[in-house]
């Protein structure tokens, strides 16, 4: 399975590699019939970058990579696919987390006078409630902004000595774009936690954390999306912060 190859060669993969692989995993049926030029344009990567990635995964070139995708899709069963996607979300999220320098984020959390957080949906708000619970036990209070109107009201109180954390599945935040630009203009530090892809939210924040989220079916008239990657980021952010603070205390 592709996720097994990704895990096996994780040490060789860059953020751009993960971005393309995320696209491949979500659109395998489409990619297996694409030319290397079509895939490179779709992912905003050069042909040589795509070719290098296939070789990092152990293939002789793009043609063998496409053949592999066709073989794998023909063997899949629905039940295997659902659980494999969950494991891929977990492993890819862990790999992305390891590649990011989190120390500046930990320092912002430690030194912030006030920490604000805004989630674009119910699942994101739920994850922030978990973060709030963790931080409260470390004597850090997280103020969760419940809706757009409250965000607009709160902006006037935000200072460069504060921190704002945003969570979004897609990272496409047209409805609060103006508010984000205002926060950025006022030099208030920000952290975005989004699905791993090019998105407007990540581009407008000071620091970025990424998770992988895949669709796992349409049932009961609802499209189901996994938030296991987001919950994992919250968990590891807290663990990392706790380790960072503890090591600083030991040094002093």
From TrEMBL:
<keyword id="KW-0804">Transcription</keyword>
<dbReference type="GO" id="GO:0003677">
    <property type="term" value="F:DNA binding"/>
</dbReference>
<dbReference type="InterPro" id="IPR035472">
    <property type="entry name" value="RpiR-like_SIS"/>
</dbReference>
<protein>
    <submittedName>
        <fullName>Transcriptional regulator, RpiR family</fullName>
    </submittedName>
</protein>
<dbReference type="InterPro" id="IPR047640">
    <property type="entry name" value="RpiR-like"/>
</dbReference>
<dbReference type="GO" id="GO:1901135">
    <property type="term" value="P:carbohydrate derivative metabolic process"/>
</dbReference>
<keyword id="KW-0238">DNA-binding</keyword>
<keyword id="KW-0805">Transcription regulation</keyword>
<dbReference type="InterPro" id="IPR000281">
    <property type="entry name" value="HTH_RpiR"/>
</dbReference>
<dbReference type="Pfam" id="PF01380">
    <property type="entry name" value="SIS"/>
</dbReference>
<dbReference type="InterPro" id="IPR001347">
    <property type="entry name" value="SIS_dom"/>
</dbReference>
<feature type="domain" description="HTH rpiR-type">
    <location>
        <begin position="1"/>
        <end position="76"/>
    </location>
</feature>
<dbReference type="GO" id="GO:0097367">
    <property type="term" value="F:carbohydrate derivative binding"/>
</dbReference>
<dbReference type="GO" id="GO:0003700">
    <property type="term" value="F:DNA-binding transcription factor activity"/>
</dbReference>
<dbReference type="Pfam" id="PF01418">
    <property type="entry name" value="HTH_6"/>
</dbReference>
<dbReference type="InterPro" id="IPR036388">
    <property type="entry name" value="WH-like_DNA-bd_sf"/>
</dbReference>
<dbReference type="InterPro" id="IPR046348">
    <property type="entry name" value="SIS_dom_sf"/>
</dbReference>
<dbReference type="InterPro" id="IPR009057">
    <property type="entry name" value="Homeodomain-like_sf"/>
</dbReference>
């Amino acid at each position: 399975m592709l996720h097994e190859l990704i895990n096996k060669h994780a040490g060789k993969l860059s953020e751009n590699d993960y971005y393309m692989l995320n696209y491949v995993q979500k659109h395998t049926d489409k990619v297996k019939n694409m030319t290397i030029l079509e895939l490179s344009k779709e992912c905003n990567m050069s042909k040589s970058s795509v070719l290098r990635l296939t070789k990092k995964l152990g293939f002789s070139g793009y043609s063998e990579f496409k053949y592999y995708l066709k073989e794998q899709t023909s063997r899949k069963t629905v039940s295997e696919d659902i659980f494999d996607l969950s494991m891929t979300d977990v492993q890819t999220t862990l790999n992305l987390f390891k590649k990011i320098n989190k120390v500046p984020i930990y320092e912002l959390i430690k030194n912030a006078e006030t920490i604000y957080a805004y989630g674009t949906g119910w699942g994101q708000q739920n994850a922030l409630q978990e973060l709030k619970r963790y931080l409260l036990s470390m004597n850090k209070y997280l103020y969760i902004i419940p809706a757009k109107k409250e965000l607009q009201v709160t902006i006037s109180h935000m200072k460069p000595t504060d921190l704002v954390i945003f969570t979004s599945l897609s990272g496409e935040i047209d409805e609060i774009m103006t508010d984000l630009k205002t926060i950025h203009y006022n030099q208030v530090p920000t952290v975005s936690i989004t699905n791993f892809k090019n998105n407007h939210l990540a581009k407008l924040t000071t620091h970025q954390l990424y998770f992988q989220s895949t669709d796992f079916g349409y049932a009961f008239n609802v499209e189901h999306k996994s938030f296991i990657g987001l919950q994992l980021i919250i968990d590891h952010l807290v663990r990392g912060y706790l380790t960072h603070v503890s090591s600083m205390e030991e040094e002093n």
